Amino acid sequence: MMNINQILELDSERKYRFALLSSIFAFITIVVFIITDYFEGDRMEFIIELLVGVVLIIGIIFMKKSTRRNIIYRIALCLIGFLYLAGVATGSGHETILYWVLALPLFMFSLLGKREGLIFSLVIFAMLTTILLIPSIFDTHKYEAAQAFRFIGAYLFILFITYKLESSRGNYFNQLVKTTQGLNIEKDKLEKSLKEIKTLSGMLPMCASCKKIRDDKGYWNHVEAYITDHSDAVLSHGICPECSKKLYPEFHKD
To answer: Which residue among 14, 168, 195, 233 is the one 20 to 30 A from 25 at the CA level?
Structure first.
């Protein structure tokens, strides 16, 4: 039976594998875009994608060597989120950077959990909304109103879906932890009870005449005393029919 530490380790391993595979796939994709933008002469997008690639490489290296992976997840997501916001602010990739931003809630909820993932996603959403709807504040790239509202709706939809998925997974995980704790408590109680149970087993030396039993120390004990000392049985006395006829024949006349 698994204990709580083993369950937590499995959940940590799940996050690590998801982050590692996602980072490797994202890095391969980013390399393709870097090469394409380099030849197309899109300098700003080239720089942003190059920085994202560097962050991914550093994150992969540290994830493999460090045991404090949650800190690495937070730092990497903050850096990537900031770079994506910079891309949105400059209209990188002829505004196609918006499509990549939609993937952020998935990574934030999967790696940071329900509560922290929601905070990160809402902060990104607030900053994106400001950039898209009020570009004059930071003098950023101006998007069409219809495109901005479509993106905001899509981002909120993805945020809601990923939040509900992580919430369901979190509830299942918490229930699994509680169930495991209860089972471990019951297991400890059962093992303790089994240790306290006294049983009689093996060959018992018994006197053929007086029916006493010899214990491990060589002493001869009455059957009643031996059974009482070596088990949880409680003996009571009575007379069997045969002995009753022998001892009290007057009560058994035909």
So the answer is: 168
